[in-house]
Specification:
alpha/beta; 7-stranded parallel sheet; elongated
């Protein structure tokens, strides 16, 4: 495979690592041409092992025979762009984590019925836009028994570079897909078609405690998590089969959405 020395910030071929925005990488108009950037050898290896297709590699010269070597062995005939830490930092605008980035093909979106086919516990992420929270939710989902993730279109892309990094590559391990926008305001009805009862995480007068036994016996449960600030819309709360709160002390009324997700996943996991 060709090893190409990067000597200029405008060098042809490195645009995907430097000048393209996340929206341009995602390429909403032509998703089949979209790509994403995975960062760090561990995360890149997880993606490769799950069948994601690499396009190009960017790494410090010293990593070609070290941290990047297993990736290069698996990646096939793709270009490897390399250079000093200083020029790569200027190129990307940030310090590379362990000196390796990989551009990869964005896979086609799976149908929700396929993602949910054998799932017993899923999470629906509605309107969460912070990349750190998305990555943390995926990491907890993978660790705590969530079978699938459904994303509303007003949420952050799980294949955002920072979301992937925060998730430690677990976005490649948990099946996920986007919910069609036409169902965004009718989530409970939509989820009922897959056989799920819905549990909206919110504070309300009729909410039940997260440790309520009725939740544990539900054979198929969809946990709906809302935005970092405002939480779930009232219509989503009103439509849900259950409204669920996390018992808290010291008059604290809420947790960060990623922390709340981890608590809910642990409590509602199937044993």
């Amino acid at each position: 495979m060709p090893i190409i020395e990067v000597t200029s910030l405008s060098q042809p071929g490195v645009e995907m690592f430097s000048t393209l925005t996340e929206a341009q990488l995602r390429n909403r108009l032509e998703p089949q041409k979209g790509i994403f950037i995975a960062e760090s050898p561990k995360v890149i290896n997880i993606a490769l092992n799950k069948g994601y297709k690499p396009i190009a590699l960017l790494c410090e010269r010293k990593h070609i025979d070290n941290d990047a070597a297993p990736i290069i062995d698996k990646a096939g005939d793709i270009p490897i762009y390399t250079g000093t830490r200083d020029i790569l930092c200027k190129l990307t605008g940030y310090k590379l984590t362990r000196g390796v980035l990989c551009a990869m093909q964005r896979p086609p979106h799976l149908p929700a019925e396929e993602v949910c086919k054998d799932a017993k516990r899923i999470v629906v992420i509605k309107g969460v836009v912070d990349t750190t929270n998305i990555g943390a939710i995926f990491r907890s989902a993978a660790a705590l028994g969530i079978d699938a993730v459904l994303m509303t279109p007003d949420s952050c892309d799980p294949l955002n570079r920072r979301a992937i990094r925060v998730s430690m590559g677990t976005v490649f391990l948990v099946p996920w897909t986007w919910i069609d926008e036409k169902y965004n305001n009718h989530l409970t009805d939509y989820l009922h078609t897959f056989g799920f009862q819905t549990a909206a995480m919110a504070l309300s007068d009729n909410s039940i405690s997260l440790d309520s036994p009725v939740l544990k016996i539900e054979p198929r449960l969809a946990i709906i998590m809302g935005t970092e600030g405002d939480g779930l819309p009232q219509t989503c709360i009103d439509d849900a089969d259950y409204v669920v709160r996390i018992p808290m002390s010291h008059h604290v009324d809420s947790l960060n959405v990623a922390a709340a997700a981890a608590v809910a996943f642990w409590e509602l996991r199937q044993k």
